[in-house]
Amino acid sequence: MKRVIYPGTFDPVTFGHIDVISRAKELFDEVVVTVAINPTKTPLFTIEERLFLLKESLKDYNNIHVDAFEGLVVDFARSVGAIGIIRGLRAVSDFEYEFQMALMNRKLAKDITTIFLMPHEKYTYLNSSIIRNLAELKSDVSDFVPAVVADALKKKFL
Ligand code: COA
After folding, report:
1. CA–CA separation, 31 vs 29, rounded Å?
2. What is the DSSP string of 105-130?
3. 72 pocket-lining for ligand 1 (C-beta < 6 Å)
4. Residue 118, pLDDT above cutoff 90
5. What CATH number corresponds to the domain at position 123?
6. How many domains is the chain built from?
7. Which of 44, 88, 148, 151 is the most exposed place for a label (fewest CB within 10 A)?
8. What DSSP assignment string belongs to 55-82?
9. Mutate which of 128, 132, 134, 136 for ligand 1 pocket (most atoms within 8 A of beta carbon)
10. pLDDT confidence of 39, banded at 50, 70, 90?
11. Phi-psi region of 81 (alpha: psi -120 to 50; beta: other; left: phi over 0)
């Protein structure tokens, strides 16, 4: 059983994240998508809302679990018996941050490998801040996020 985790803030989940998850689920037996409870960020959506939106967006996938974690990502990976951490690389600009994080995680836990997957190029310019910003300005975000997320954003910015 090869299990990996895919950690992130997911504020909110986008088609870019889902693209990475779809690729990971073809390569591994199980993907645990895990929402970071990060006290340094002030997300738009609560942890419960982000979990709900992920669960709804991924309900048709059968080898995916959705969870939340606090603390070190490698500790969470160990606690669920994962062999690796999936991260998406969208563009060169992601590389430095991801490289640093991957090396630190390897230092902390040499048995857990970071695996980088590239989402489809049509999602390279996508991130959650842009989506939140578009939604706040009442722009249509349905090309970028699942319908349940688009609805939740509409309600947030009524
Ligand atoms: N498609 C669209 N957007 C994507 C994406 C993809 N495939 N991959 C990443 N993004 C976007 C996210 O939406 C997010 O956008 P935003 O900043 O505009 O909101 C941004 O890229 C950051 O991505 P995210 O994956 O959420 O990373 P993060 O910097 O919030 O870090 C953790 C998340 C969980 C990996 C990190 O906080 C962590 O490891 N925390 C635990 C502490 C720890 O273990 N520290 C030691 C390791 S260094």
Report:
1. 7
2. HHHH-TTSEEEEEPPPGGGTT--HHH
3. yes
4. yes
5. 3.40.50.620
6. 1
7. 151
8. HHHTTT-SSEEEEEE-S-HHHHHHHTT-
9. 128
10. confident
11. left
The two three-digit tokens of residue 112, written as one number: 């857990």
For residue 116, the enclosing domain spans 3-156
Read off the pLDDT of residues 76-98 as tens digits, 9 standing for 90 and up: 999 999 999 999 999 888 899 99
Binding site membership of 123 for ligand 1 (Cβ less than 6 Å): yes
In this structure, the residue with its CA closest to atom 24 of ligand 1 is 8
* 80 neighbors 3 (Cβ within 8 angstroms): yes
**105 is written with which tokens?**
């995680």
Distance, CA 43 to ligand 1 centroid (Å)?
12
